[in-house]
Amino acid sequence: MSIQVKNVGEELRNTSKSLFSVEVMPPLKGQRVDALYSAIDPLMKLLKRYSVRKRPGTVGIAAAIRNRYDTEAVPHLICGGFTQEDTENALIDLDFLGIRNVIALRGDSVKNERVFTPEPEGNTYAIDLVRQIMDMNNGRYIHEGLDLDARTSFSVGVAGYPEKHFESPNMEVDLQHLKNKVEAGASYIVTQMFFDNQKFFSFVHKCREFGIDCPIVPGIKPITTARHLSLLPGFFHVDLPETLVKNVLACSSRDEIRKVGIDWAIQQCQELIEFGVPCIHFYTMGKSGSVEAIASEVF
To answer: Which CATH architecture does the domain made up of 8-298 adopt?
Structure first.
């Protein structure tokens, strides 16, 4: 069966209803691909679009998902750990396989590094990665002497931060960086997770005032454990609403916490759909049970 290649950016602009996507984690070293499929299988009756995080093996993982589920995969490409040549080679392979939707990210600093350090001969910022992809879309490759006139047709998404990227001095600077990425060729934005919809609504309003008019996809992460109360703010630099924290702390079991997280995310999603978002993106952290419950209720 042939697989129809779709352009995520165009579909987000033209959709008449809110879609949803989920991020899945690649298997750990030594695990078989079945570990990946077990997290995706429960979602496939609901899923419209999902993405995988960039790690070694992204091309193979994206191809495996396409082959098994006959649906679009949106690999994450990052700057850290990859040269521009590595990135170009990965993009050539993805294009060859008919995978033409990607997310361009700078990536986080590695452990024991206080600041992000780019790979020698690699891209420093997400905008550099976007520009490299756009160059390939225009038939420009790293080695200009090669007789390569093949143009790729990648649709590129980038990250946005409703609560500001923690490295930006203020929201205005952060929005300018985001606008630069869109002007460089990004066709849609997927946000960092947030737990207060008002922060997302405010972010969208500020983006529009700033001249950023592309689709903006909200990112949702359901709380599943009490550890998330410290882990998520510390690692992702997001605030948790007081009511949500109180509800989690009042729970006496993990099942109760999971239900609180599901109910909170359902309420978020319903309000976001009413707001008119083109898609909702779920961060699964490798576990799909809560997302399945949320999506079954909302979609």
So the answer is: Alpha-Beta Barrel (3.20)
